[in-house]
Structure formats: structure tokens, C-alpha cells
Amino acid sequence: MINFSPKSRYNFEDLLEIMRILRSEEGCPWDREQTHETIRMNFLEEAYEAAEAIDCKDPDMLCEELGDVLLQVVFHARMEEENGGFTMNDVADGICKKLILRHPHIFGEVKVKDSAEVLRNWDKIKQKEKGQRSQSDAIEAVAKSLPALMRAQKIQAKAAKVGFDWPDVSGAMDKTAEEMCELSSAISDGEGYEEELGDLLFSCVNIARFLHIDAERALEKSCDKFALRFKKVEEAAEKQGKLLKDMSLSEMDKLWDEVKKL
To answer: Domain extents for the chain?
Structure first.
């Protein structure tokens, strides 16, 4: 029997203890079986659910989802502690030191005039800290596990910091048109269209960067818009006593245009 007294309110130390119990010999079989790899996707899913709570402007939901994210952090730290690696205190120690190091204008003698200068200093300190001797090193350090649109935008921004960039958005627009033609040719040739499609998407992300738009967020909104319009089209078809699968493409297009006008 596990010796753990219920409380009316728990704190962070309680969370650490609960995780220790769950991973112990007397704990939960499922929790004991997990590894960094098996719960990797859980971490990503919980982070996205927290992001959704932010989008919904729902503080109660956000509180709950942040708890789920925190659980993942504690879970990974506990596994490392069991293996003789780092502990949760090491995680806290590392981030505290990083914050102090990267805020010399707060914890040191450096003077800054605005947030832009703060970010420039942050990048310089980060490059020195990570041993990045070139901008290529900084680009290669962008996490490959990021969503592709987000990774593309970060890579482009880092390249732009050394002047490898179009003067304005028109250059990015022209490049996108060029990539569209190359994709069309590849489709006609029947080969190389995956690479050309990737180049086209990369160019579209560049346009987003020039317009100060989050490419990932922009696509999310388009997905939401499509889902809503599709639902309305299906409802419109049902009002006519029809099912979409029984309609022609031209009939569905007509309904789509009507929904779009609304």
C-alpha cells in the first residue's frame, strides 16, 4: 500500500513525489514501462493543446493544459534521475542560469534601449554559448523536429541576419512565381515534383516572413476556414435533400461559392 495522504491542495513537490511513486516498483505498470521515446509524442500533443487553450482565450483550460505539459517535463526528468542522469533540480538550475546569462541588461551592467536590442544581444549570447562560429551553425541548430513551416521561417530569418535576403517582399513574390513554374514543369515531366513542391512552400513561407505573418498560424487559419466552409456546404446539400458523395463536382463548387459569399 502506497503511503500518500490526500490533500485539499497540492504543490510542485507533491507532483514530484507522485511521479516518483508512479515510477516505483509499487507504482503503475504503464508509467514504469515508458521511455523518453515512447512519450515523445505525448509531449508534443500536450504543448499543442496548451497552445489551443491560448487561442481560445480560456484561462481555466490553459491552467489544466499547462499542468499536462508540466507533467511531461517531470516525467522525463524522473526517468533521467532513475538512470543516474540529471534531476528536476538540474533542469531548474540550467534554465535559471540561462535566463541570467541571456539577460545581462537585468542581471549585469549591459544597457539596452529597446526590445530589438535585447533580441540582438540574446542571439549573440546564444551563439557564443552554443559554440556557433558561423551563421551556418546557427541555421543547422534550428530543431529538425519543428513543424516544417515554422522551421523554414526560422531558417530564413537567420539567413536574413547576415544579409542573405531579398530587399523587399516583391523578390519573394517573384521567386514564388518562378517556383510555381518549376513545379508545373516537374509535374509535366512526371518526376521531381516533391522537391519542387517543397521549394514552392519554402518560397511562400518567405512571403509570410516579409509580411510579419506566422506561416504556421496562417495555414492553421486556412484549415479552420476550409473545415467551416465544408461543413456549411454539406449542410446546404442536406437542405436540398442531397449527399455530397452523390453530387457532381460542379454542383459542389456552386454550393461552395454560395457559402463563400456568405
So the answer is: 12-101, 132-213, 218-261
Pick 12-101's CATH classification: 3.40.50.300, 1.10.287.1080, 3.90.1150.10, 1.20.1270.50: 1.10.287.1080
**pLDDT tens-digit series, residues 87-128:** 999 999 999 999 999 999 999 999 999 999 999 999 899 999
Q: What is the pTM of this model?
A: 0.78
The answer to whether 169 touches 207, Cβ cutoff 8 Å, is yes
Tell which CATH architecture fits domain 132-213.
Orthogonal Bundle (1.10)
Is the per-residue pLDDT at 1 higher than 70? no
* 166-to-36, 115, 154, 172, 174 alpha-carbon distances in Å: 41, 24, 16, 7, 10
